[in-house]
Amino acid sequence: MKIAIIGGGISGLSTAHFLRKGGADVTVFEKNGVPGGTIGSRVSDGYLVESGPNSTSETNFVIDELLADLSISEEKVYADEDSKYRFIVRNGKLHALPSGLGSFVSTKLWTIGGKLRLLGEPFAGRAEHEESIADFVTRRLGSEFLDYAINPFVAGVYAGNPSELSVRAAFPKLYALEDKYGGLLKGTFKGMRERKKRGTQSKASAKLFSFRSGMGILPATISAELGGAIRYATPVESVKRDGAGFAVGFSSNGRSETEVFEKVVLSSPAYVSAGIVKSWLPELASELAKIKYPPVAVVVLGYRREQVGIDLKGFGFLVPEVEKRKILGTIWSSSIFPKRAPGGFVELTTFVGGSRQPRLVVLESDDITKIAHEENSLLMKIDGSPAFRAVSKWERAIPQYNIGHLSIIDAVRHVESLHKGFYICSNFKDGISVADCIANGKKTADAILS
Ligand SMILES: Cc1cc2nc3c(=O)[nH]c(=O)nc-3n(C[C@H](O)[C@H](O)[C@H](O)COP(=O)(O)OP(=O)(O)OC[C@H]3O[C@@H](n4cnc5c(N)ncnc54)[C@H](O)[C@@H]3O)c2cc1C
Question: What are the counts of helices (DSSP H) followed by strands (DSSP E) for the chain?
Answer without folding.
Answer: 17, 20
